Amino acid sequence: MSESSSGENSASGTVLAIVLVFVAIGGVAYWMNSRREQPVDEVAVAVADDEHRARKVSTRQPAADTTAQPAAAEASAAPVLTPAQGADPATPAAPAAASESLTPAPAGSLEDVIGSALPAVVRVETNTASGSGFFVKADTILTNVHVVETNLLVTIRRQDGKTMSARVEMTAPTLDIAVLKTSGADTSQPTLKLGSAAQARAGQEVVALGAPLGLQNTVTRGIVSAVRTVGSLTLVQTDAAINPGNSGGPLVTRNGEVIGITTMSMRPGAAQGLSFAVGIEHAHALLAGQTPAATGSTPLNALSQAMNASTGSESDARRAQGARAYERTIGDIGRRADQLDGSWTTFKRSCYDGRIVGSFDREWFALFEPRALPGLVQPTCTSYFADIRRVAEEIRTQVVTAEEGARQADVYPGTRRDALRTNRLDYPGWSR
After folding, report:
1. Active-site residue identified among 132, 139, 176, 275
2. Which end of the chain is least crowded, N or C, by CB within 10 Å?
3. 52 carries an active-site annotation
């Protein structure tokens, strides 16, 4: 290679190196300039904090830089997000409007429902007794007739202990509902919303509010056991504890709606967890001015009659019918057993050689005992003996079936025992 060629190559290499250095320096400068014009951390703070957003965008992004303007406009249009009270400031809360449209507010707790309802519940006092009641309007209270009895004026004791008088405006003994009116309407008086007993479902949670035994602001909790119709009366059955003094108080659902007016419970010695409230639909009608016709019956009387009809008279009739059927059946079986007695006498005289272990009302009952016939059966009587055993087994099956039917019909054990003894069928081993 010549010297001229070597010099040319050296000069070309020098020029190329210088060009590459300038390109690298320009690239680094451009990268550093872009980092200064749009700092990531400060843009994020501008989105989360409206007050600092305008200041940081205006000081960090020159107006002459057209490439930064779209980012500034976008940041300015972004919604302002402020942390909720007590929330983590690093986690912005969702906009209020979006929260309301997408996620409904959670239902209040049972404690909240009770806390809102109790100020509407009062103690109703007379000269001879006391019960409970509740405001449904600023000047209107519902309670039981058996709480106010024949009084025209009663005393109302509020949750805070303050008292006022109320007049008995309307009574419906058939429903055991009384409507009371106070002398003036207090617009700040809390009231309860009336719901529907007909819409209540078995197992639905309810609370009874009132003043049992004079203990005001008492709450008991339970479920709807059933909704029962007794004649024209609707009753809500519940296992919530209802004690003297609860009468006239509200039976409230978790939604804070009254579905019944508590009116009675079974005596502790008679039943447990068996209480009743008059369906609130009846109060709707009273408040609308519709007075039911007088029938002389009360919810307690109506319920007692219904319970007697279902658990007393009807059961007695079923039991008596079952006893008659059982006695007829056992009589028929007894007559068949009498016929088998004759066949057994012939068998024992002609075909059986041995003794019978045990004492039986009918000797062939020994067929059902494992070691009661230790003797020998004559070979010529094998078929005859098999027929006797077959008939005896059929009789046993008939007696067991009759006993089961009598038990299902609740026929008394004494009645069954007497029928068996009369027909000489009182044998303890029938079901073995």
Report:
1. 176
2. N
3. no
Closest CA to 200 of 234, 231, 176: 234
The pTM of the whole model exceeds 0.70 = no
146 is catalytic: yes
Task: Kindly write down the DSSP assignment for every residue of 359-410, as one continuous string.
Answer: --SSGGGGGGSTTS--SEE-GGGHHHHHHHHHHHHHHHHHHHHHHHHHHHTT
Asked if residue 155 lies in contact with residue 143, where contact means CB atoms within 8 angstroms, the answer is no
Catalytic residue among 130, 132, 247, 275: 247
- Residue 295's φ and ψ, nearest 5 degrees, are -120, -10
Gap between the Cα atoms of 141 and 151, Å rounded: 15
Check: CB of residue 294 under 8 Å from CB of residue 176.
no
Catalytic site residue from 130, 132, 139, 146: 146
Bridge partners for 261 per DSSP = 250, 278
Q: Is 139 noted as a catalytic residue in this protein? A: no
Give pLDDT tens digits for 269-324: 556 788 999 999 999 988 988 877 665 567 877 777 666 555 544 566 778 888 98
The strand pairing partners of 238, in sequence order, are 224, 275
Contact 417, 406 (CB under 8 A): no
